[in-house]
Design brief:
25% of the residues lie in helices and 31% in strands. The protein is α/β, with parallel strands linked by helices. Strands 7-22-23-21-20-17-18-19 form an eight-stranded mixed β-sheet, sandwiched between helices. Helix 7 packs parallel to helix 8. The termini are far apart. Bound molecules: S-adenosylmethionine.
Length: 451
């Protein structure tokens, strides 16, 4: 098999990124845009030692789950991978993927159906658009094309909040009308780098963060006046300065141009303040379902001490804290810990202590030096999962229940495997936090053996 060969293949499965999988004489070929059960004509794009990649030339037998694409930038954009698939079927695909990962490791667990959305459109509360320059040298703002840093101009995104999109559009018009230069990753010159717009879906409060290179921003007052006159929902405008040659969007320095520097939102009846550097789940409707399931799994009686590891602005622990004996939160971003402390205060959570630092450094120390214990531990790490020392410390502390919230089922399964030394895994519920993308969030409950 070589590049540009054309073949007819049966799609026998879908992979981690939603791509179709075909086998030709035992050799695996990944085919983006194809659905399990389809027969397709493909052109070979790349051949590696263990697998290859193909592109769909023609769909010969279409899946009954194939749907008309409703987005102008799909599939060029790196946001959604599954816009061509029936929504309910995407939920089945996600459930099956998690089931298979546990099965592969011979872990016997009940995987519940993936909890979906009634209306899986415009659900995101955070838009993050890079600025760039098109082929004609004109400024553009939108999303990065898949596996590249070419910016595709994005007018209407099917998963972004509509007000956030209008605000971003106005920021872009302002940048163009005032001839403000756009940062180029090639020569590291130019001023504006990213436009981030966040909304509290319940409060309807909007925060704009404009990420810029260093240097004077002369048009500050004009920008603030224009935006706040047009959008009374804007409660805060922040300039973030990033002068590094990096893929990381935000720099360390923030300058509040308007308002308080944060917005509020509410989850499950609790109020939260969110500042620009802090993580906040991007789909609040599903976040409430996710947290409710996590709290249900924790079976709290009000007497427990709780760990909230990787706590962000403290949301899971605070939502679970009603009458808890003690709540300990750990998080690496200092601004998020400041938010968490304020949020605990706002919600009258008195018995709480928050620690800034990496869980892998802070948790073992707290356990060793202060003999801190917990009955229930919530863990919600980033995609790379937990460092082994975190899991080993939990195996020593032995909370009765561990509720593991994960945005990457592969690292969830890896970490659960370690915890099975002392724990039994009872149940897993996938929650569709990112409809029409191949991402899936999962909440799992583990109970200490022999209690
Ligand atoms: C998936 S988010 C979860 C946040 C929060 N539990 C929530 O639901 O909003 C993961 C969080 O872990 C933080 N984080 C990443 N690596 C960390 C580490 N090694 N130690 C502590 N926190 C970390 C991130 O800043 C982020 O706030």
């Amino acid at each position: 098999m070589k590049k540009n060969d054309e073949l007819i293949v049966d799609i026998i499965d879908n992979g981690m990124d939603g791509e179709g999988i075909a086998k030709v004489d035992g050799f695996t070929i990944f085919v983006p845009g194809a659905i399990c059960g389809e027969k397709v004509k493909i052109g070979i794009v790349k051949v590696l030692k263990t697998h290859g990649f193909g592109r769909v030339i023609e769909i010969i037998e279409s899946s009954k789950y194939r749907r008309e694409n409703d987005c102008k930038t799909f599939p060029r954009c790196g946001g959604c991978d599954l816009r061509h698939v029936d929504y309910n079927y995407t939920l089945e695909m996600k459930e099956k993927r998690i089931e298979n990962l546990f099965k592969k490791e011979k872990i016997d667990v009940t995987v519940k159906p993936c909890v979906g959305m009634d209306d899986p459109f415009f659900y995101r509360n955070k838009l993050q658009y890079p600025f760039g320059v098109n082929k004609d040298g004109k400024p553009v703002m939108g999303v990065f094309a898949k596996r590249s840093h070419n910016v595709i101009e994005t007018k209407e995104c099917m998963i972004q909040d509509k007000l956030c999109q209008k605000v971003a559009e106005s920021v872009f018009e302002f940048i163009k009308n005032n001839n403000i230069s756009v940062y180029s990753e090639e020569n590291l010159k130019g001023f504006v780098r990213h436009c981030i717009v966040r909304i509290g879906k319940k409060s309807n409060e909007v925060m704009v963060t404009l990420v810029t290179n260093k240097g004077e921003f002369k048009e500050t007052n004009k920008l603030v006046n224009e935006l706040t006159t047009k959008f009374p929902e804007i409660k805060s405008i922040v300039r973030n300065i990033n002068d590094k040659n990096t893929n990381v969007i935000l720099g360390r320095e923030n300058e509040v141009l308007f308002g308080s520097g944060y917005i509020k939102d509410n989850l499950l009846g609790f109020d939260f303040e969110i500042s620009p550097m802090s993580f906040y789940q991007v789909n609040p409707i599903q976040t409430e379902k996710l947290y409710s399931k996590a709290i249900e799994y924790a079976e709290l009686t009000g007497k427990e001490s709780i760990f909230d590891l990787y706590c962000g602005i403290g949301t899971i622990g605070i939502c679970a804290s009603k009458g808890a004996k003690m709540l300990y939160g750990i998080e690496t971003v200092p601004e998020a810990i400041e938010d968490a402390k304020k949020n605990a205060y706002l919600n009258n959570v008195e018995n709480s202590e928050y620690f800034v630092g990496n869980v892998e450094d802070v948790l073992p120390k707290l356990v060793e030096e202060r003999d801190i214990k917990a009955d229930v531990c919530f863990i919600d790490p980033p995609r790379k999962g937990c460092e082994t020392i975190v899991l080993e410390t939990l195996l020593k502390v032995k909370p009765e229940k561990i509720v593991y919230v994960s945005c990457n089922p592969a690292t969830l399964v890896r970490d659960v495997k370690v915890l099975l030394d002392e724990y039994e895994i009872k149940e897993v519920t996938p929650v569709d936090m990112f409809p029409y993308t191949s991402h899936v969030e999962t909440v799992a409950v583990l109970k200490l053996k022999n209690i």
